[in-house]
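Fold this sequence, please.
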Amino acid sequence: PTDRRSIKAILPLARKAQIPILNSTVTLSEGDSYLFSNSLSSEHLTEPFSIYLLQMAPKSALIVTEALPNPLLPAYRAALGKDRQVEEFPLQTSLKGSERALSKKLKAMKPDLVVLLLGAAEMKESFQLLSKVGFRGSIFSSPELFDYWKVSSNRSELNGSCFPYPFEQLREEEAFVKRFRALYETEPLMGADSSYDAVGIIHHSFLRSAGGPVAEELRSTDYIGVVGQYRFTEEGSLTKGRASLTCIVKKTPLVI
């Protein structure tokens, strides 16, 4: 499953059957048991944001989120602390449907910082709206900004915006990156290394099961993959990896 609603719907079934779920969307902090995610944890994705706040020192921030609860929201709200003016704007359905209300909010609040906890699909409309209302503050985004940057025809509008991304982690995985480039003729994106590991965990557990229950072997795996060693706990899985503070400078993402 790749969306939060599906994951949350089947988690109770996974607990009952004691079968871990491997997915690419829900971070470990959202799950309550038997969940393996190749998403970086909220903790890992918040560290670059905390560094960014120290550097930029905004006095006010508006957090724009999707209608569904975002696992980063509590962590980012905590990082912003109580000494700043912090307000939230959850989209009702889509950014297009909330454009008028969000424009009004931006003009009234005039925040120093806008935090976009949105998917790649909403990024284009977000930056267009911020430009339309004349926003001159700072922008920090979820990692999906990189997905939008790759397809954007107007990368100059993204200059100065920052986001967390595991660039340094991927750079250290030289052998994996080299094989990935040779096979797919492109650079690996966030989650490519741990997705590769996820398939390796399944294969490793299948071989160890020798025809027995694969779920038992999944829960007791000690597989060593590209990212590191994986061990399931009784109530979940260790999510591995780390994110770097990345900002777009002269239309190019750079690790700060």
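The mean pLDDT is 81. The chain is about 45% helix and 20% strand.
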